[in-house]
Every structure is written in structure tokens, then in C-alpha cells.
Design brief:
The protein is of the alpha+beta class. It has 2 helices and 6 strands; from the N terminus they run ββββαββα. It is about 20% helix and about 55% strand.
Amino acid sequence: MNRVTLIGAAEAVPRNGIANGLEYSNFTVVTYESFFNRYGLPVERTLFHRVVAFGRLAKTASQHIQEGAHIQVSGRINYRTYVGSDNVQRTLAEIVADDIQPQDFHTRQQVHQEQTQFSSKP
């Protein structure tokens, strides 16, 4: 099973576009981890995770994700290769999101109100 869930902060507002007729939104989720190294000293690391959302989820992400927003992203890990401008082949890992949930109380409340208003329209 290829499934991942991240809880972290959006590094910046999503970058949006259209590829092959499908709307997409790219953004980065920042997570932190801490542990003790083999000498017993605390180590803190910041990790950056590339996320892509498609279709309606991309539109929702672009409307609601702001820099620093705390979010939960669920999806699958995808690996793809490309040739860079220096003519070197590279492999990129990204999370293809199928669910994005705000973790801030005020944002959750705002999204819920908008979803309720949207669903009540004919």
C-alpha cells in the first residue's frame, strides 16, 4: 500500500497551473523531527515535502492554503524523472494529494462554513 499522511506547515502559497487540460496546484509542506544522535545529543531537522493536487482539490488548495498554514495532507508518494537544464537526469519524489485538511481552528471553521454555503446552493 502506498499511503502517506503529513501534518505540517505550508512553506508558501500554492503555485497553480494547467497541464494536459487538468488544473494542478504545487506547494511544499514543512515538517520537523527531533531525535537524539548516537552521542546522546539532541538533533532537530526540518524536512520539505513537495505536494501536488489535481482538479477540484487543486482549486480548493489554491483558495485556502496560505504561507504558514497548518495542514494535513494525505495521498500517495510518486516518483518521476526529468532531465534538468544541465542535461542531467533527476528523480523527484512528491506527494500526490487526495485529501487536504486545515489544522487551524479558524481555517477549519471558515472552510466548513464555505462548504455548507456551497452545498446549500441549488
